[in-house]
């Protein structure tokens, strides 16, 4: 090959990669400035496991979340230390991984000798069904696992080819040739199976990483056997032997995922799936739905309406009958085009199998299908589109062939335009949930999401309205009952209603630990209800013994009761054993220790620990200052802590007042007067402020 040809060969993949990245940025640009959506805050923004090295170990060996996707959580840990609470970096990561998957898909389709591999890559990159996975930060598990899976497939093909050469069976195959026409000679394997190559072990390792990113790739070993049949017309013993380690990885991590889903994700929220007949019908409807959306991505929605399935009626089973007819027709043509249709549709069905409802997953409590669940099966449809375009090219008259690339690019441009418009709904929760309700007025979770938006924006009346609308559609959703109760508890005169909704949440789910905790917090503030509050704190801990917040709040409640100080100390210590970096617990424990004879040194240590964990903890600075001010010779240090509290929160009236007292003790009368006056402006009800000001003014020359 000439040097110029070599350079061109090397330039091609780089140019395509650059084009894919540029296209991905253009498509998803509307979402790049978007913030946190739905469960993003729980998984990332408010996840303490992402904050330190101890959390990194917890991710792998003691996870507390609803799923076991430790590789995804590790990447999120790295992201938090790179971008913190800024969402742009997380969005760029998803977009970059999506572009990488498109490039790897191009490599894979070329490895399968598809002449229009670039078209398959562009279809996948620009398809609107992929938008939800890329634009929603939490779906990193999708965009992260797929590049590893595609890399595993490419490496497996390399090993498969090497094994064929080693066995002396490296002649023609059932793949499409450079002309786009399919060759289908009969094949035989010689002798025993050759030893696996390094590509085989690389493939197995990459599949393991894909499973640790998201275990929905669990059906990949089945795709390997399907590939063997497509390539050689049969599944040989060597193919089964090569797939066994992949099946073992899939089985082990699949069982782990099943356990987490059953005991964590939906353990407290049962998902009604019906019996085997209902599940079979729902799975058929789901498969037809995903095929339809991949073929024509119209009417996409964040939350799709449920569909009724009522076996033994034949009507809900029509998708299976239709798919069986297509498969039967393709089987009769398996010596030509039928084999390739069976491979593409078979790979699609295998990759979709985990999300069709045979096994319940937590998302099914909101909707039976979702765009982000179709991200992985979309790869098979993109490959089938490339194969179909290649076959169509071979059948075109020569005069029309030069126009085909322009037509295919136009198709991708239309898909990209639809995707860019769809990406705009992921800019904010308000846009997301408003759009969801336009598409599906019965989406109760959208009302719930808008209620959370209104609550966080300080609009409790609007939040109450949204929560009530969600509960009118689905009164059995305990989190909506709980959030409505918490908002009502902040409104004057509506505490009885709040208590009724707390009770409703706990009737729905008596093991709802957060509902026990929040109800206890409200009861603890009501006269004469402390015994009930303590019972609910203890109930929360009975459900979740490692609930650090419940330990902290129980300790705080006990600390104000006569004779219960030793118990309060025990619960504060228990909270710190669960989470040693819980700044609020260190501060609360310090306050209690400071009031006990001889325990001030320990108190000061805990104040310092709280501020080392969270230097912007204004209340801890203030409490530390109050403690220091009681010690001989420590007033200057107290002043420094009061000043630190006010730098963080200039509207902290009590800090202004106590700083003024400390200034007066050290003879800094003008500054003391200024802070007394500021405290009075912020809180006119503070005692003796005017009297203190008059006394100090008499001392100023």
How would you describe this protein?
The chain has 701 residues and is mainly α. Among the domains are: 15-178 and 213-266 and 277-394 and 402-408 and 421-426, no CATH class; 510-581, Serine Threonine Protein Phosphatase 5, Tetratricopeptide repeat. 69% of the residues lie in helices and 0% in strands. It has 32 helices and no strands. The chain has helices spanning 3-32, 40-45, 53-61, 70-83, 88-111, 117-126, 131-135, 140-166, 198-213, 220-232, 237-265, 276-295, 318-332, 337-352, 375-395, 404-423, 429-439, 444-456, 460-473, 478-489, 495-508, 513-524, 530-543, 548-559, 565-578, 583-594, 600-613, 618-629, 635-648, 653-665, 669-682, 689-699. Helix 5 runs antiparallel to helix 6, helix 28 runs antiparallel to helix 29 and helix 31 (669-682) runs antiparallel to helix 32. The termini are far apart. 44% of the residues are buried.
Q: Assign the structural class, choosing from mainly alpha, mainly beta, alpha/beta, alpha+beta, or little secondary structure.
A: mainly alpha
Stretches where pLDDT falls below 50 for ≥5 residues? 170-191
Describe the biggest sheet? Answer: none
* Number of continuous helical runs: 32
Q: Over the alpha carbons, how many angstroms does the gyration radius reach?
A: 31 Å
Note the gap between the termini: 96 Å
Q: If you average the pLDDT, what whole number results?
A: 89
Total E-strand runs: 0
| Helix content class | 55-70%
The percentage of residues in β strands lies in under 5%
- Shape type: elongated
């Amino acid at each position: 090959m000439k040097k110029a040809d070599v350079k061109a060969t090397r330039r091609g993949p780089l140019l395509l990669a650059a084009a894919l990245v540029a296209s991905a940025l253009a498509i998803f640009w509307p979402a790049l400035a978007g913030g946190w959506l739905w469960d993003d805050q729980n998984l990332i923004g408010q996840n303490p496991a992402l904050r330190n090295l101890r959390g990194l170990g917890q991710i792998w060996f003691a996870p507390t979340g609803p799923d076991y996707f430790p590789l995804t959580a590790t990447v999120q840990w790295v992201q938090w230390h790179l971008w913190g609470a800024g969402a742009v970096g997380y969005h760029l990561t998803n977009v970059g991984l999506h572009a990488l998957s498109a490039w790897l898909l191009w490599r894979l389709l070329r490895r399968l000798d598809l002449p229009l591999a670039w078209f398959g890559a562009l279809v996948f990159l620009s398809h609107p069904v992929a938008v939800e996975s890329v634009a929603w930060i939490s779906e990193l598990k999708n965009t992260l696992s797929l590049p590893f899976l595609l890399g595993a497939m490419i490496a497996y093909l390399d090993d498969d080819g090497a094994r064929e050469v080693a066995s002396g069976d490296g002649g023609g195959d059932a793949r499409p040739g450079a002309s786009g026409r399919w060759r289908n000679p009969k094949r035989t394997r010689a002798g025993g199976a050759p030893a696996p190559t390094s590509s085989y072990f690389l493939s197995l390792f990459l599949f393991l990483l894909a499973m640790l990113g998201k275990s929905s790739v669990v059906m990949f070993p089945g795709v390997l056997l399907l590939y063997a049949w497509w390539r050689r017309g049969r599944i040989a013993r060597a193919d089964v032997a090569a797939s066994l380690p992949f099946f073992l990885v899939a089985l082990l991590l699949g069982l782990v995922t099943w356990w987490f889903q059953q005991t964590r994700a939906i353990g407290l929220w049962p998902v009604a799936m019906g019996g085997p007949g209902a599940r079979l019908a729902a799975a058929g409807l789901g498969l037809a739905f995903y095929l339809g959306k991949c073929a024509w991505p119209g009417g996409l929605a964040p939350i799709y309406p449920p569909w009724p399935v009522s076996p033994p009626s034949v009507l809900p089973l029509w998708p299976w009958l239709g798919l069986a007819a297509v498969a039967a027709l393709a089987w009769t043509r398996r010596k030509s085009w039928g084999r390739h249709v069976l491979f593409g549709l078979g790979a699609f069905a295998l990759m979709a199998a985990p999300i069709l409802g045979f096994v319940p997953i937590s998302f099914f409590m909101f909707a039976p299908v979702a765009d982000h669940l179709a991200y992985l099966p979309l790869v098979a449809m993109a490959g089938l589109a490339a194969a179909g375009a290649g076959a169509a090219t071979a059948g075109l008259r020569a005069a029309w062939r030069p126009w085909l690339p322009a037509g295919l690019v136009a198709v991708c441009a239309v898909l990209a335009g639809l995707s860019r418009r769809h990406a705009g709904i992921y800019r904010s929760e308000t846009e997301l949930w408003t759009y969801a309700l336009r598409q599906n007025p019965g989406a109760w979770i959208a009302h719930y999401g808008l209620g959370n938006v209104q609550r966080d924006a300080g609009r409790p009346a609007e939040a109450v309205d949204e929560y009530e609308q969600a509960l009118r559609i689905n009164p059995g959703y305990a989190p909506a009952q709980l959030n409505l109760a918490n908002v009502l508890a902040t409104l004057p005169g509506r505490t009885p209603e709040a208590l009724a909704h707390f009770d409703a949440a706990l009737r729905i789910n008596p093991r709802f630990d957060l509902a026990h905790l929040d109800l206890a917090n409200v009861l603890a503030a009501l006269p004469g209800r402390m015994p009930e509050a303590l019972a609910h704190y203890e109930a929360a801990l009975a459900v979740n013994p490692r609930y650090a917040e419940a330990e902290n709040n129980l300790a705080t409640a006990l600390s104000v009761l006569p004779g219960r100080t030793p118990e309060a100390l025990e619960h504060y210590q228990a909270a710190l054993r669960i989470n040693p970096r819980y700044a609020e617990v260190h501060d609360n424990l310090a306050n209690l220790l400071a009031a006990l004879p001889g325990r001030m040194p320990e108190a000061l240590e805990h104040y310092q620990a709280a501020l080392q964990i969270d230097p912007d903890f204004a209340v801890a600075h203030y409490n530390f200052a109050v403690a220091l001010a009681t010690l001989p010779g420590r007033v200057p240090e107290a002043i420094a802590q009061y000043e630190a509290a006010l730098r963080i929160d200039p509207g902290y009236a009590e800090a202004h007042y106590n700083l003024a007292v400390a200034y007066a003790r050290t003879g800094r009368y003008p500054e003391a007067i200024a802070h007394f006056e500021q405290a009075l402006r912020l809180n006119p009800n503070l005692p003796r402020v005017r009297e203190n000001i008059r006394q100090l003014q008499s001392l100023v020359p």
